[in-house]
Amino acid sequence: MSERNWYVGVDWASRNHQVCVLDGAGAVRGERVFAHSGPGLWAMASWILETVGEVAPATVGVAIETPHGPVVESLLAHGLAVHSINPKQLDRFRDRYSPAGAKDDRRDARVLAAALRTDPHCLRRVAALAPELVELRESTRLRTELLGERTRLINRMHDMLWRYYPAFNWLVGDDLAAPWAQALWQRVPTPAAARGTRLSTYEKLLQKHRIRRFDAAQLKAQLTERPPHIERATATAAEAHARLLAQRLALVAEQLADAEARIDALLGELGGADPGSADAPTEATAKPRDATILRSMIGIGRSVLSILLAEAGDVLSRRDCRALRCLCGTAPVTRQSGRTRTVTRRLAVHGRLRDAVLHWARVAVQHDAACSAKYRALRARGHGHYRALRSVADGLLRIACAMLRDGTLYEPRCVQP
Residue 36 contacts by C-beta under 8 Å, 6 or more apart in sequence? Predict the structure, then answer.
């Protein structure tokens, strides 16, 4: 990297962004405020390049608190070297200029630029993601949002059914969002409708959805048991509310299927096909891609793989195991002062990555002998369930980074987590 003589701090906000430019000696060469709009972001990048003069944009360092968003993308599009810093770290750097705790936008912009000038190792270089990873990140986040919305709708529909149709709740249980349960409710939305439906109709529905837990007679008998005695108006209102919830649930199910299909397509483009499939690399092909290597590990499916690639793509590309462990929350935090030494769980983590690797470890414990043995040994030593899972996940992340570095696929008999 060429020597830098210009440092820029951007204190971003929802409406306006404060920008400060420092030269190599730390002197302020310019300060301005730009509106958060298309012309405003373009003017901000253009003003920075105009202020620094005839230098290569890549040699101009820009510090900002966020690693993504339109401000970052606009700066990257102009070729500037963008670095992100954790807000907690920025708060510590701010204390160097104001021990009393004074804070304002101009000061923060200057502190950002000064931190990049004096302590560049404390900031993380932001790289533009490949278009496939950008789309994969949005698709995985959309899938997570849709899953949460589906859960909320299911709980609300359960509540409505408990008011006037508890027999249906007892029958379907946790399968309320399943296609067969929704099809059944559309056919018999009330106890009266269940009593008036023929056995042949129940048989056809069970055969169509391949439900063998009960036959048509059992299904009708459970649905037609005596309902609770409530006012007709209450039952009618609850049924109408449940019908609206069912329509929304059907829409969410359709959108969720589209999101998952798009994730599968993107993973295929990134080389994330099953190692045993025809798309997996052979001995005659080049080194396998990152997605293929990760997919070969026990416990990694579509959800975990997509989240790892989308939320930690830059860390994986650098093979930075330490940063990956910190983001996923498996690296502990040690505090030592004098004779006191404590090791605690890391709280400053990436939530989606944390949940993904814990799920990965949980599945690996169920299907991999080495992971299962390690989990049982940790539990026998008195560790709690989640602490043991974090230890297993930490070992899996170390293995994954080593495999990515060497370009090899996972062989359970050759590695220990």
Answer: 12, 13, 14, 15, 16, 17, 70, 71
